[in-house]
Design brief:
By secondary structure, the protein is an alpha/beta fold. The protein is built from five helices and eight strands.
């Protein structure tokens, strides 16, 4: 799979990478939402989340043009081709650090492109001060300050089925019900 677009953003999000497991992991795990192969889009430079998933039997690859080498990202694309798309994609605290709608849509499109035909993508965001007024943070990075539900329409432009469970957005290519996950 050759990714046919570039994700360009006005402010780098490289400084937002944190050595921690995203809070949304607990929600996904409680829903039994992970499958055998996961790709973490914008997963940062640390492997804490990847290691936790490995410990529960989920193979995880990280695709992150800001924090991983071009070679690492190409390897993830090759793996995606070999397995005909990842079963699940996670995109935690990424959309909220991108100030440009087209760049956010490119990230969402990447999640879509890297999941299998029945793949599911999980999105979570850091809501910041929840004002909806974006600004530069103290790390010289962008923060959208939007609540989770405000991202659903953008994700819905790419994915066919979009649902929210608390602070987690679940998106799939084919219409599914999350009731089987509960």
């Amino acid at each position: 799979m050759e990714i046919g677009f570039t994700i360009m953003q006005n402010h780098s999000s490289a400084n937002t990478s944190m050595k921690q497991v995203p809070a949304a992991h607990k929600i996904i795990a409680a829903l039994d939402g992970y499958r055998e192969f996961n790709v973490d889009i914008g997963g940062g430079k640390y492997n804490a989340y990847m290691d936790v998933l490995h410990d529960i039997g989920v193979e995880c690859a990280v695709y992150d043009p800001m924090n991983r080498s071009e070679e690492d990202n190409e390897d993830v694309q090759v793996a995606c081709d070999l397995i005909n798309g990842f079963d699940t994609a996670t995109c935690h605290n990424v959309l909220n650090v991108i100030d440009d709608i087209d760049a956010r849509l490119a990230v969402i499109q990447l999640c879509f492109a890297m999941t299998s035909i029945y793949g599911v993508a999980y999105f979570s965001v850091y809501e910041g001060n929840k004002t909806g007024k974006g600004r530069i943070s103290k790390k010289d990075c962008w923060q959208e300050n939007r609540v989770t539900k405000d991202y659903m329409s953008e994700i819905g432009q790419i994915f066919h089925d979009v649902e929210r469970v608390g602070k987690l957005i679940i998106a799939s290519k084919k219409r599914i019900s999350i009731s089987h996950l509960e």
